[in-house]
Queue: 4 jobs
Job 1
Amino acid sequence: MPASDSATGAAVAAPAPAAMPAASTAASPTSAAPAPATTAAAERDPRIARSRAALREALITLVEERGIDGFSVGDLCTSAGLNRSTFYNHFRDKESLLASFEDEVIEGLGGVLAKFQNIKLRELAAYSLTHRPLPMLVELYDYLREEGPFLHAMLGPGGDARFGMRLREAVCGRFVRSLLHERYQNDPSAFTRYYISFYSGAYLGVISEWIDSGMTETSEEMALISMRLLFIKPGESIKM
């Protein structure tokens, strides 16, 4: 099988917050809007950070209650305790706000997944055989737990379906691809593409189930489960 490691023989498959000073209340969505407030800008200005945090919390609440298409910018501002002019000082519309927060999560995941770059299947197999969780996987699940409320909203029935696809590629696809033998990592063949797609979808399902069920398992337990799923063979006992 192309995605196997010859050393293991195992197939491979992640009270209202203080508002920022507002510009003229005449601002509107049709006005020329500046670029969205970035995470770096928020780190420099505590007022921006507080406003972003309030909008993020409001977004999560409204998506859970009404679905992504069930509320307006006005609803967001009311829920966040901000005025509309403050919102339009930093975001063009609801979609740009959503994209900014989704990008933030994907970027954070990228920082965690960069550590998987040099992981080898032999190393992963050694951890699995001794029932030790791979530290990098524990860190991944720690980050996913930290972002649990946002991920629950976005991956839920009222969330953003496109974000699920991004998460599958950014986390699951990247994880699976990093474990392939180097000669297959850029292999364009149909089987390798479907192999990566198969395992990427499976791991997105694992993450979604964990988040949807309340993240009751620890990060260490999820790391062990993920590793066990990677090496399990058809017909083998599915017990840990």
Note: The first helix runs from residue 39 to 44.
Job 2
Amino acid sequence: MTQQWSQTAEINAGRLQSNPYPGRGIVIGLTPDGTRYAQVYWIMGRSENSRNRVFIGEENGFVRTEAKDPAKLTDPSLIIYYPVRHTGSAHIVTNGDQTDTVYDALASGGTFEQALTTRTWEPDAPNYTPRISGLVDLSDASCAYKLSILKTNQGDASQTMRHYFHYEQGIAGFGHCVTTYAGDGNPLPSFQGEPVLMPLFDDIAQTAAFYWDRLNADNKISLLVKTIDKATGKTETHIVNK
């Protein structure tokens, strides 16, 4: 199976590289040595407002987006947020302010799914950008990691489709990827289907470089990789800003 997984991941990585605009993306999986979970998150943008961003790591391990040039920031509502936060042994990554929704729910004894039930896609008609979210909770023995996508039903804003993917075990050297868009367009077409298998590496910088190199050079903005040690909970974060 390892060879088959490798071939599938290689094909999917090639599709990512040939896609001019997958939008924002999340990959969650297990390093090849099997000791750490990895979370990859990237942002892309076509407008000046979207491209005017960087990732900033905080001492508490959180990561936030920030305007590179505050004077050029026109609308912070959908572009300034925390993509990465953690509470206890639960490590959250999302493409918007639903990070805070999940954080608050988990901190008060709720669940990932309950939190996202209160949210929908982003209010940016006509794209209705999906909200993508992921979770690694070391205290959950029944699930290695989770991914979710909230989106309209083929652009129908009267319907919200809520997809949750639970992975009981990680596959050493691989992760699963979900993106906001299937590709470029007007309006932008939402991601379709199940998260796709992608490769991961033991070296955090190698993982970051692998994905950064496969994102469209004009549209990529920032990328981060966070690893979480399964045994100790120790984390490491690597950030790349354009």
Note: The chain is about 20% helix and 35% strand.
Job 3
Amino acid sequence: MSSSFFSVPLAALQHYLYCPRQCALIHLECAWADNQFTAEGNVFHERADSGMTENRRRKRILRSLHISSLQWGIHGIADVVEVVYAEKGGIPVSMTPVEYKVGKPKPHRADEVQVCAQALCLEEMFGLEIPSGFLFYGKTQKRMEVVFDEE
């Protein structure tokens, strides 16, 4: 008996909730063309995509972290994950995903679902409960907290 594993990219969740057709074009048909907006997004994400880590006392900033969940069948890359340790170099006591978006907060919850899915992956990978995450919007230069609840 053979088993197969299917995993959905985290970005596809956001794309699907925003527009199912856009999601299909990008993730099924691989129809993607860069334009002014994607170029701006690439510049905006440069630091987050660098993969460089940063230490601030008991906090470590991880960038471009590959994450996945076998339980939920999702995978992707978290822009930023902030890890707090009990003591310097010790065991992580909290993790917070931070998803970067070029624009501004939107009337739908697609961005929130994406950062929530990142938290699900991190919870499975590291055995920590993650109660919230953040969306950082480039247009407002502000973080918006996303509290993870049943909805």
Note: The helical segments are 10-18, 20-28, 36-44, 110-126.
Job 4
Amino acid sequence: MSDAALRERICLLAKSLFDRGLTHGSTGNISARTPDGGLLVSPTGTSFGRLDPARLSRFDAAGNHVGGDRPTKEMPLHTAFYDTRNRTAAVVHLHSCHSVAWSVLPDADPDDFLPPITPYAFMQLGRVKLLPYFRPGDPAIGDAVRGLAGKRSAVMLANHGPVVAGLDLDAACNAIEELEATARLAMLLRGTTPAMLTPEQVADLVRLHDVAWGD
């Protein structure tokens, strides 16, 4: 995909996420690897519903900011995924309602954030790590992701929002939508005794789809 086409695709997918209420106001950020090894990143303080392709922050392959507006303050979070998962081509971070709600409840498992309700979350996300609260923009968020040594493609920032790294832009957006949908199901089912996927069924999905499972 050319630089120009990638800019348009970032803005199109971001607006789709915004229009369906998966992030709001000026929350969330998105980045994608360019053909020359650089990055295009949503600028700080911008809305997913109104991104301008020409004003996206542009980084070269060495990590230097070479064009566009000032980037999101969550750059340490994005670069941590690119640096530790070498197949990452896009990173998306949202402030989606149900996943944030699930992150602050005692039911949430820090090592396996999403309960085994449907196969799709495992197929697209693997096992999601729940990280503790960090102040937005804190470089320590990036350190926490680096501490996972590339073993997780998705994390949930407690009291904040999900972050997903994908093999391409569409895959990252699809996966983070699946994360939010599964968290919504978890909230709907809370207090009931649903029939979850068995450990054997989950293991079968992990094997068949070669997902990022981590330790």
Note: The chain has seven helices and eight strands.
